[in-house]
């Protein structure tokens, strides 16, 4: 056995016997200390200056020509490490030849096999009969040969590709076999030629060329086919094509065939520029065999920013017919699927002033049943206005809004004979806020002025009218804090009382048009407002005092809220004449009491409640009570009860819970929901109407996480009428490291199951991969 340091420039070759590796350097001497980690090394021309460190049991060679190492050989240059039984390095060619138990690692990628030839600097060469692992992606396989083109590109011949380890039968759960696999890590692309994808030995996909991303980054190409079963459209198969036009632009084209309806094409285009961005979606069904007509939906969102913060926004939604929302409920993106808004907005600031304009139209989707026809808002064609917000004098704040509106009734409205007309209004306020860390006081004087002109006379409504309504208000709030102990833990408790006094004189408005006003929802926010109406056209008279108090428990370390309790009520000093029903003045002095509460004091439990208690009849008028139990990741159960007396009474239950879990291997890599042990989860949400004794909406499904693949099956039922509903079945197979096959239920689960978490979202390290050792 020989050991020595050979001074061959520019190489630094060190041959150290195994026993010597464990010995410390002599005092005052220089020693080599092995490190389990590698610091990223320079690339390109800078890499030429990196030394080569060679260790082995025996080393011999010719200076400036070659070095031959045998026995536990290890060669390092930058981020490349080669281990073998025997290695021959030719300095002139920069060529390393290794045989016998060869292992090479480079930037986290690991290759193992019997024979390697590699030019170190350019990372060019080949590996015979290797197994490989791509460390960044947790995937790998076997090949007859791998040719390295550079440190980013390689071609594997007669190769396999998977992210799974061996199962009980000695094969991976899923495996892609191909005549050749081209790997381009820089382009995030893998291309398998003459590939066959097998799942537990069953071929599920075959193609002359299969392109797949190496991670979740974007890449042009055909996406896996989507398959769905819908009660309206029947069995559907789609083949999306994704076009990564540029880092800030892309498009997706989805040809789709429905057994019942025929062929359709979905198109989505997205763009993001420094001064503008947006997206457009068009779904086109040239010939719907069920409806016997052409059908489509169009959605356009666009935002543009010009000089001086000038903003232009376009929101367009349109469908071909009134029944579209029922036949294709999942194409709708509006909160009210039967009211589709199109508006164009423009705004430009001038110091404290902002000018703006808007054109707003509605597409109203009506039903044949007169009882279910809907009333649409007025269209604004156009809306033009200006706003001012600034300071005036010592501490005074001044706000003003002036606006012109032309109101027209949309086509297909339930009440087509509504009056059309114009309105000019002005809103203004002058206030002097006093603010300290413990309390605030806001006295304010405001006014609401409007002038109306109708196109034609309407019974009981003045065609031309003007009115001005002033309001005086004083809003005061306090915050008190103290340290306390609850349930054996130290907390910070707050007490936050608030008073709002408002006085608005009575001005008759029952004979004036109402274009945009409606009663606000009665809640903790709206009760602390001077006017219980939204919009401009109605201002309630009132001489009233609103009093409320909230107490909170906060964590002194993080500031997180552990408990909140609140109560609020309004008192009228005189009868209120302007009410939602103009023929019924309000003579009730005390309003209903609002109570709220939420807490997470009990470990793993969250409770929320909001209650409206009738002051005149001493009973619950409205309530929303919810509870959620979440003892850990991917484990959550929730229940919510909703009551609006005389209208609705509903119970909603949601869950994500493991039904079956294998014992977890403590040596498995962290980051997987099941650590490759295999887990079955039940997921769902059911919304049941106790008043109608029927299920309104429901989602029920299951997810199985096997570590390297995830299977999902979800059934969704969505009500589209009193007795109508749409049901669809979503099935997806996610092959970790390759792609997702089938229809994607993830967005449905995230939007509908309270507390739902994706099974893969915690994966921060690659899956353990050792399929052939």
Structure write-up:
By secondary structure, the protein is mainly β. Among the domains are: 1-128, no CATH class; 132-218, no CATH class; 220-337, no CATH class; 648-773, no CATH class. Helices cover 2% and strands 57% of the residues. Strand 6 and strand 7 (95-106) form a beta hairpin.
How would you briefly describe this protein structure?
By secondary structure, this protein is mainly β. Among the domains are: 1-128, no CATH class; 132-218, no CATH class; 220-337, no CATH class; 648-773, no CATH class. The chain has 3 helices and 49 strands.
Backbone CA Rg: 35 Å
Strand fraction band? over 45%
Poorly predicted regions are: 1-30, 664-676, 762-773
Query: What can be said about the biggest beta sheet?
Result: 26 strands, antiparallel, barrel
Form type: elongated
Which class of secondary structure composition applies to the elements?
mainly beta
- Count of helix runs: 3
Mean pLDDT: 85
* DSSP, total strands: 49
User: What's the end-to-end separation, in Å?
Assistant: 31 Å
Helix content: under 10%
Write the layout of secondary structure elements.
Elements: E1 4-6, E2 13-15, H1 18-21, E3 53-55, E4 58-62, E5 66-77, E6 80-90, E7 95-106, E8 109-119, E9 124-128, E10 131-134, E11 139-142, E12 145-148, E13 153-161, E14 174-184, E15 189-199, E16 202-213, E17 221-222, E18 226-230, E19 234-238, E20 241-246, E21 249-258, E22 262-272, E23 276-288, E24 293-305, E25 311-319, H2 324-327, E26 339-350, E27 353-364, E28 379-392, E29 396-408, E30 421-431, E31 434-435, E32 439-454, E33 464-478, E34 480-486, E35 489-504, E36 518-519, E37 533-534, E38 542-554, E39 561-572, E40 593-599, E41 605-613, E42 620-632, E43 635-644, E44 648-661, E45 679-689, E46 694-705, E47 709-719, E48 725-735, E49 739-742, H3 746-752
Antiparallel strand pairs: 1-2, 3-5, 4-5, 5-6, 6-7, 7-8, 8-9, 8-10, 9-12, 10-11, 12-13, 13-14, 14-15, 15-16, 17-20, 18-19, 18-48, 19-21, 20-21, 21-22, 22-23, 23-24, 24-25, 25-26, 26-27, 27-28, 28-29, 29-30, 30-32, 31-32, 32-33, 33-35, 34-35, 35-38, 36-37, 38-39, 39-40, 40-41, 41-42, 42-43, ...
